[in-house]
Write a structure and sequence with these properties.
heterodimer, A: 150 residues, alpha+beta, Alpha-Beta Plaits, two-stranded antiparallel ribbon, 4 helices, B: mainly alpha, globular
Chain lengths: 150, 326
C-alpha cells in the first residue's frame, strides 16, 4: 500500500515539475542579446579608476597632484603622477597620471584617500589589449582630448 | 494525371503506391527532423528563459539547414581499431526500421501508404530492430563508452518493450483489430484515452524510454558516457543517428495519437491537420519532459519497468478483458 502512495506522490511531483517549466516557457526572456544590447552598469561597479572633472572647469581635473593615492596604493599600481602650477593658481594641476591596471585590484583605497575626491571608478567593464602596456592608462589623457575640443 | 496512369500501367498500382509513399515518407522524415531540431532548441531556450537560435534566418528558422549543411561537409572519421563493416552498417541500419514504421501510420482517412491488417505488429517488430543497430554501433566503434551505452540501451529497450506491448493490447481488445485504421475508426465517438488512461500513461512512459529520451537517456548519458553509442560517429553518419532519434519521437507520438487520442478524428479541420496537431502536441510534451526531469539511475530505470509498469499493465489488461467479457 505504501508503494502505491509513493507512486502517486511521485507522479504528482512530476506534474508539479512540469508546471514549473511550462511557466518558465511562457514567461518573458531574461537574457540580453549582448553585442546588440547592453545592460546598464550598476553604480557600485568597480572598473579602473578615472579622474573626476572639476565642476567649474570641466576640461580640467580635480586632481591636485598630492600623491596620496600613489603612496597608499597596496599594489603599487599608480606609477607616476606629475603636475604643474598654472599661472595665477595656488594648486597644481595633473598633467600625467599613469595607472598600471594589470596589477590593480580595484580595492578602492586611492578613491577613499583622495583629499579632493578626484578619483572614481569608471564603468569600463570590457578593456581589451594585445600587450601588457595597453593597460597602462594615462588618466589625464581624456582631459587633454576635452581641452583640444574646446 | 495521364503520366500517372501511364506509370501505373507499367509498374502496377501497388508499386506506384509504394514509390509515392516512400518519397512522401522521406520528405516527412527530413522535414520533421529539421522542425524538431529547431523546436528542441527553442523549447530548451524558452524553458530556461532565453531566446535560443535566432541569428540564422527569422527566429533562427534556417539554423537546422545550416547545421545539416555543416554535417554534410564534415569528414567521416573511422576509429583506428573499429570493426569496419559493422561500423559502417549501423547508421544505415538504424534508419531502415524507422522508415518501415511509417508505412502503416494512418495520417488521414484515406492517407496511408498501406493498411496492413497486423499494422501495429509491424511497427513494434521493426522498432525493436533499432536496438540491434545501436548494439552494432556500440560494438563496431571499439570504444568503451560506446559499448557501455549500447549495452544499457539493449537492457533498457528489452525492459520497456514489454509494457509498451502490454499497454497496447487492451486497445486491440476493445477495437477488435490490429489494423491502425480500424483502431482510429473505432474512436469516432470517444477517444480510447478516456477508457484507458493508465494504458496511455504506461505507453507514453515506455515509448519515451524506447526512444532513449530524457529522463531515460542512459545510453547517451553525456555526463558519464560522452555521447554513448554514437561517440565515434561524425558527419553524416552521426546525422543519421540524429535523424533516426527525431523520427522515432515522431513515430511514438503518432502511434500514441492513433491508439489513444483518436488519430485523425476531429471536428471542422481536415483529418490530417488534426493528426499533426495531436502528434506534435505529444512531441512537445516529450521535449518538455526532457527539459524538466533529471536522468534516472539505472536501477531506478529497470525497477520502474519491471516492478511498476509491467504489473500495472498486466492488471489493466486483465481488467479490460474481464469487463469486455461481462
Amino acid at each position: 500500500m505504501t508503494s502505491v502512495v509513493e507512486i502517486v506522490k511521485g507522479f504528482v511531483s512530476l506534474i508539479v515539475g512540469m508546471g514549473v517549466t511550462i511557466k518558465a516557457f511562457f514567461s518573458p526572456v531574461v537574457t540580453v542579446q549582448y553585442p546588440r544590447k547592453t545592460i546598464n552598469i550598476t553604480p557600485r561597479f568597480r572598473g579602473h579608476t578615472k579622474l573626476v572633472a572639476d565642476s567649474e572647469r570641466p576640461e580640467r581635473t580635480k586632481c591636485i597632484v598630492c600623491g596620496m593615492c600613489e603612496r597608499n596604493c597596496p599594489s603599487k599600481s599608480i606609477k607616476k603622477i606629475t603636475g604643474e602650477k598654472l599661472e595665477g593658481e595656488k594648486k597644481k594641476t595633473a598633467t600625467q597620471y599613469i595607472l598600471d591596471f594589470t596589477t590593480c585590484s580595484q580595492c578602492g583605497i586611492c578613491v577613499e584617500t583622495c583629499p579632493v575626491d578626484a578619483l572614481e571608478f569608471s564603468a569600463d567593464y570590457n578593456p581589451v589589449g594585445y600587450k601588457r602596456e595597453d593597460f597602462h592608462y594615462d588618466l589625464v589623457k581624456e582631459f587633454e582630448k576635452r581641452r583640444q575640443k574646446l | 494525371m495521364n503520366e500517372l496512369k501511364c506509370i501505373i500501367s507499367i509498374i502496377g498500382e501497388e508499386t506506384t503506391r509504394a514509390v509515392i509513399g516512400l518519397v512522401g515518407v522521406m520528405i516527412l522524415v527530413v522535414v520533421n527532423a529539421l522542425i524538431l531540431t529547431w523546436a528542441e532548441r527553442k523549447v530548451a531556450g524558452h524553458m530556461q528563459r532565453r531566446i535560443a537560435a535566432k541569428e540564422v534566418g527569422p527566429f533562427g528558422l534556417i539554423q537546422p539547414i545550416a547545421d545539416s549543411l555543416k554535417l554534410l561537409c564534415k569528414e567521416l572519421i573511422t576509429p583506428h581499431h573499429a570493426e569496419r563493416p559493422l561500423f559502417y552498417l549501423a547508421p544505415t541500419l538504424i534508419f531502415l526500421p524507422v522508415l518501415v514504421s511509417f508505412v502503416v501510420i494512418p495520417f488521414d482517412a484515406y492517407l496511408q501508404v498501406k493498411d496492413i491488417n497486423v499494422g501495429i505488429l509491424v511497427i513494434l517488430a521493426f522498432s525493436s530492430l533499432s536496438v540491434l543497430s545501436i548494439l552494432i554501433a556500440g560494438w563496431g566503434s571499439n570504444n568503451k563508452y560506446s559499448l557501455i551505452g549500447s549495452i544499457r540501451s539493449v537492457a533498457q529497450n528489452i525492459a520497456y518493450e514489454i509494457p509498451l506491448l502490454l499497454s497496447l493490447l487492451p486497445i486491440i481488445i476493445i477495437a477488435q483489430s490490429f489494423s491502425l485504421r480500424d483502431i482510429v475508426e473505432a474512436q469516432k465517438g470517444l477517444w480510447f484515452v478516456v477508457y484507458q488512461p493508465f494504458a496511455f500513461l504506461i505507453f507514453f512512459t515506455a515509448s519515451v524510454a524506447e526512444t532513449n529520451r530524457t529522463p531515460f537517456d542512459l545510453p547517451e548519458a553525456e555526463s558519464e558516457l560522452v555521447a554513448g553509442f554514437h561517440t565515434e560517429y561524425s558527419g553524416m553518419r552521426f546525422a543519421l543517428f540524429f535523424l533516426a532519434e527525431y523520427t522515432n519521437i515522431f513515430i511514438v507520438s503518432a502511434i500514441a495519437t492513433t491508439f489513444f487520442l483518436g488519430g485523425y478524428n476531429g471536428p471542422i479541420l481536415p483529418g490530417i491537420i488534426w493528426f499533426f496537431i495531436k502528434t506534435y502536441f505529444l512531441v512537445f510534451v516529450i521535449l518538455w519532459m526532457r527539459w524538466t526531469f533529471p536522468r534516472v539511475r539505472f536501477d531506478q530505470l529497470l525497477n520502474l519497468s519491471w516492478k511498476i509498469l509491467i504489473p500495472v499493465a498486466l492488471v489493466n489488461l486483465i481488467v479490460t478483458g474481464g469487463i469486455l467479457k461481462l
